[in-house]
Amino acid sequence: MIKTITSLLLLLAAFAIVSSCHSNKKESTSNVTYQCPMQCEGDVSSDKPGTCAICKMDLQPVEADTQEAKEISDLSIYNLPSVWTNQDNHAIELKELKGSVLVMVMIYTSCKAACPRLVADMRAIEKQIPEKNKNMVKLVLVSIDPETDTPERLKQFAIENKMDADQWVFLRGSKADTREFAAVLAVNYKKISPIDFSHSNIISVFNQQGELVHQKEGLGIDLEKTVGKILELVQ
């Protein structure tokens, strides 16, 4: 498991570097404000150029999204640029989940072997989260079979399995984005027939900033440490 988490951290760092390089090449469309370079007045800013009332230095331009960028570390999955579709057929970026504790697995809805047990584990985790904390957690199931798992199919699967409350999120993406995200989670999968896949069975927990804090591999496993980590994060 240590090797898995180390590999994940290295992959996230690599994605962050690529994303950063790409961002530097783009023309900025962000709103710009102006602040004292010495921060004499803390985070006080102006929407116009001028001078600091205290040290008289020229105010320097600051992009409006600079603070948000600072809040996301290089190891956060929120650096990933992929766009997904959820069970309600809405486009979503991972960074829109920022602020919630994420519990993630990768499945496919036509699976008859391992996935039902993974789903059962996710439901068992959800039951152990106190009602007062459930709005702080997102239980995310990412499809490894986006061709079959349309938004309509994901919605139906959610309803059939009583996983249609607000804390449940089902995602599908392009084949390339799915493969990339699986690599980030250290999940291996392979199509072995027209309707079947072999795949890793890993439950991953991410903190509110999108950083990996816990992983557990296996089916029907003891979930005590996983639930304990989630509860620790939402306290």
From TrEMBL:
Residues 34-62 form the Heavy metal binding domain. PROSITE patterns: PROKAR_LIPOPROTEIN. One of its GO terms (molecular function) is metal ion binding. Residues 1-25 form the signal peptide. InterPro entries: HMBD, SCO1/SenC, Thioredoxin-like_sf. Belongs to the SCO1/2 family. It holds the Pfam family SCO1-SenC. It comes from Saccharicrinis carchari. Keywords: Copper, Disulfide bond, Metal-binding, Signal. The lineage of its organism: Bacteria, Pseudomonadati, Bacteroidota, Bacteroidia, Marinilabiliales. Disulfide bonds join 111-115. It comes from the Bacteria. This is Protein SCO1/2. Cu cation binds at residues 111, 115, 199.
